[in-house]
Amino acid sequence: MAKITLDNLAHSYLSDPAGEDDYALKELNHVWADGEAYALLGASGCGKTTLLNIISGLLRPSRGRILFNDADVTHAPTAARNIAQVFQFPVVYDTMTVRENLAFPLKNRGAAPDYIARRVQGIARMIGMEEILDKRARGLTADAKQKISLGRGMVREDVNALLFDEPLTVIDPHMKWELRTQLKALHRQFGHTMIYVTHDQTEALTFADKVVVMHDGRVVQIGTPEELFEAPAHTFVGYFIGSPGMNVIPARVEGAQAYINGASIPMARAYGALDGKVEIGVRPEYARLSATEGLPVRIRRVEDVGRHKIVRADFFGYDINIIAEEGEEIGPDMTRVSFDPARVNVYADDWRVEGEAA
Amino acid sequence: MDKTVNHKAWFLVLPVLALVAFSAVIPLMTVVNYSVQDTFGNNQFFWAGLEWFDELLHSERMWDALGRQLAFSAIILAIEVPLGIFVALHMPKRGVWASFCLVLMSLPLLIPWNVVGTIWQIFGRVDIGLLGHTLDKLGIAYNYTQDSLAAWITVIVMDVWHWTSLVALLAYAGLQSIPDAYYQAARIDQASRWKVFRYIELPKMAGVLMIAILLRFMDSFMIYTEPFVVTGGGPGNATTFLSIDLVKMALGQFDLGPAAAFSLMYFLVILLISWVFYTVMTNLDKREGV
């Protein structure tokens, strides 16, 4: 197990990158703690797989270094990095039995037969496959195969990190929960450093201690699920995380007041002069409809999703979402919306500005 | 649901019946007819029973031809399959060179059989052929018209030259279908090159390889044109394979009865071997499916 340091890391798929736009992965400086579970979250093409491939050694970064503990592994081949990876599509050796599959990485490294047998038995118990150890891997279901590749990764005791590249894509929905829970339990039990790439926020938020949100080749925020929800560092984090995402509305900010079309919105924090494009962000969960309080709003549609209702509304010409409690009656007189002042975030040029308590 | 019963529907099957009858059933039955009769010309036939079959089963000539045929098929399979896999493994996976290699590999497949025969017939000639002349000058005794070994080598090298591409292309198609993740996983598992081949590439190629083997077996088992053009079955009977012998018997000597019996047995042997192949293939699938 290892601490992973990304030092001035950047990657471009072009041989001669000119500007920042040519980089699929823009410069990164981070230290990922030993034994933590990280999720790399972002839309397709945001650079998360590039980053994963650099960590696993399938890709050499154009610039910068990557360190496992304190050893520079930037130019080390995959095999020398002692990592394990679970891929999007289950990779199993079809002609081998489950047992042979699990033993394969150890066998290749010349481990003693009795050690291999012990270890394989242990891993099989962990992933719940003791019963079918002697079955051929080929005929198994996708989730069983994915478990085997997970087991193959964990069979080595000394792996530096376990990497997951959208491992639940081909798994049936009802099995996803089980596998994710199992992963989480394994992480608690063994404390491997885990890096999990996904574009599914639910997966990321339930699996990881820290979620690394990536956008356009850049890490925009690393934080706990709570931090990402309460204080998105970038408007992208705001609307990528949450269902529906954060409402982002252009505004003018003066002290502890935000103005939209001249109407004022009170905030819990005060801000100095801001440059660039200024917006406020409020999660739908912190917006409240009422008949009397707040600013005028026109309701366009109400979607009842079971636990709560999502109100789609028009607010000074901007589309916003408001979450109303399941029991709340939404009548024709509900024409006003108010925002929880403590939950209003201010963004300048898409990045969050920290205010001072007013 | 009740099925509609309409016996007129049988008429719809008639065209197919007629077609199959004319193209397959009647010719086959004619052969069967010939195989149990004897004739001295003038369309006079005498009942011979199973005499021809009996004679054939005791004929050294047929057994020799069958032996040569089996040896030939076994040798070319033993060369072409590993060689084809080897070539496929070393072909570039993508890019301009991949297309170039594909075109290059398909070239021999586009050449008609008798042209292939002619090419090698000339190529191997000691007086004017590049190969034959060069070998002769190097002091290697090579003359496919007089030496059985040289004739065999020529015929085999010719077949390898003509058909290895087919195996290589099929194996290449099998290799191309392997996702990159498999190779990455193998690297992570520190699998050796041999193990990558044994546990990833070979299993993924198994399906197309079976087809390649079946195709090459069938084709080589009925080979006629190429050796006929190069050696004419000689020297002596050294390269007289089943089909060459059969044509000699039927059209050269006009022994219609024995030739008919011969071709029926030829047919049965092919049927038998194909059946064995088929059974092995489906059993492989079943076993792997468990």
Automatic annotation (TrEMBL), chain A:
Q: Where is the ABC transporter domain?
A: 4-241
Gene3D superfamilies referenced in this protein's UniProt entry, alphabetically: 2.40.50.100, Nucleic acid-binding proteins, P-loop containing nucleotide triphosphate hydrolases
Keyword set for this entry?
Answer: ATP-binding, Cell membrane, Membrane, Nucleotide-binding, Transport
Xref: InterPro entries? AAA+_ATPase (IPR003593), ABC_transporter-like_ATP-bd (IPR003439), ABC_transpr_FbpC (IPR015853), ABC_transpr_MalK/UgpC-like (IPR047641), Mo/tungstate-bd_C_term_dom (IPR008995), NA-bd_OB-fold (IPR012340), OB_MalK-like (IPR040582), P-loop_NTPase (IPR027417)
Please verify whether the record's keywords include Hydrolase.
Answer: no
Is the keyword Cell membrane assigned to this protein? Answer: yes
Q: Which GO terms describe its cellular component?
A: ATP-binding cassette (ABC) transporter complex, substrate-binding subunit-containing
Pfam families assigned to the protein according to its UniProt record, in alphabetical order: ABC_tran (PF00005), OB_MalK (PF17912)
Q: Which one of the record's GO molecular function terms can you name?
A: ATP hydrolysis activity
Please give the family membership noted in the entry: Belongs to the ABC transporter superfamily.
For this protein, the record's PANTHER family field holds:
ABC TRANSPORTER ATP-BINDING PROTEIN, MALTODEXTRIN IMPORT ATP-BINDING PROTEIN MSMX
- Report the protein name in the record: Carbohydrate ABC transporter ATP-binding protein (CUT1 family)
Species for this entry:
Rhodovulum imhoffii
High-level lineage: Bacteria, Pseudomonadati, Pseudomonadota, Alphaproteobacteria, Rhodobacterales
Automatic annotation (TrEMBL), chain B:
Q: Where does the record place the ABC transmembrane type-1 domain?
A: 66-277
Q: Which GO terms describe its biological process?
A: transmembrane transport
Q: Where would you find the membrane-spanning parts of this chain?
A: 12-36, 70-89, 96-123, 149-175, 196-218, 259-278
Q: What is its main location?
A: membrane
What membrane topology term does the record carry? Multi-pass membrane protein
A Pfam family this chain is assigned to? BPD_transp_1
Return the GO cellular component terms, semicolon-separated.
plasma membrane
Could you tell me the superkingdom of the organism this chain comes from?
A: Bacteria
Transport as a keyword?
yes
Tell me where it resides. Cell membrane
The UniProt family comment states: Belongs to the binding-protein-dependent transport system permease family.
Could you tell me which PANTHER family the record lists for this protein?
Answer: GLUCOSE IMPORT SYSTEM PERMEASE PROTEIN GLCT, TREHALOSE TRANSPORT SYSTEM PERMEASE PROTEIN SUGA
**Name this polypeptide is given:** Carbohydrate ABC transporter membrane protein 1 (CUT1 family)
What organism does this protein naturally occur in?
Answer: Rhodovulum imhoffii
